[in-house]
Specification:
The protein is an alpha/beta fold. 32% of the residues lie in helices and 22% in strands.
């Protein structure tokens, strides 16, 4: 039987307490896996791991990193017992190096909350091998799209690609849950939807100069760059699978690229 071709997804992880919040995005992630064929492996790129050059988690058990403070005690008691297979780590290394992208293995690194929060909602059984890939802080938007293109062949081998971040992310603009969404956030998200539906990856790569209110929507780029990896790994078919906001202006849009 031919293995199914997996999608490339961009998923929101919101604030760390998303996993215990009952928020609409958490309910979406909990339900969405039923619409997917189960992958044999997952490669996830989170906003919360940046290295000068690309790095991978090593094979073996992956620790749950609680890389945050000031949240309810129950959040620190959550552990997602993920593991990475030698085969999956090797496949990711080969795909990147075949595209002339250097990558190193970080054997002691686990999963940060940008990885384990959405994964624990999407696949709570933690029974799928997972590898986390860092962002490359020396790479621009086009460079992260190139990373996605390098990973794209893995989708034919029943490996799902996930970018985890936020369509809008400005910590200075955090407001109580349920607060009105500012106009600058909706304007940025509207631009993003147009660009993704048009599959205009060149404009997407230059979002800082092209998008309205980009400097407010993303004062720093780490929560947006995983989306560029996901889009680069796509095949031209794009679907918005969830929308909304958390804490006033955290963009919780999710996208599937097939």
């Amino acid at each position: 039987m031919v293995a199914p071709k997996q999608p490339s997804l961009f998923l929101p992880h919101g604030a760390p307490d998303l996993v215990i919040s009952g928020h609409a995005a958490a309910r979406f992630l909990t339900d969405y896996s039923a619409q997917l064929s189960k992958p044999e492996g997952i490669v996830i790129v989170s906003a919360h791991w940046q290295c000068p050059d690309l790095s991978l988690t090593g094979p073996g058990p992956l620790a749950t990193i609680h890389d945050f403070g000031g949240f309810p005690a129950e959040l620190y008691e959550i552990h997602y017992p993920a593991f990475a297979s030698e085969n999956l780590v090797g496949m990711v290394k080969h795909s990147l190096r075949a595209a002339c992208l250097e990558v190193s293995v970080h054997p002691s690194r686990g999963l940060d909350h940008g990885a384990w929060v959405p994964l624990s909602l999407l696949y709570p059984g933690a029974d799928i091998p997972v590898v986390q890939l860092s962002l490359g802080s020396s790479q621009d938007g086009a460079g992260h799209i190139a990373v996605g293109r390098a990973l794209a062949p893995l989708r034919d081998r029943n490996v799902m690609i996930i970018g985890s971040g936020g369509s809008v992310h400005n910590l200075r603009a955090v407001a109580p849950e349920g607060s009105p969404v500012p106009a600058w956030a909706t304007a940025f998200d509207s631009w993003l939807e147009t660009v993704l539906v048009d599959n205009d990856l060149e404009r997407l790569a230059r979002f800082q100069s092209n998008a309205p209110h980009a400097d407010i929507a993303h004062p720093s780029t780490e929560h947006f760059l995983p989306l560029l990896v996901s889009a680069g790994a796509g095949g031209g078919s794009v679907e918005k699978i969830h929308g909304g906001y958390s804490y006033g202006s955290f963009g919780m849009s999710a996208w599937a690229f097939r």
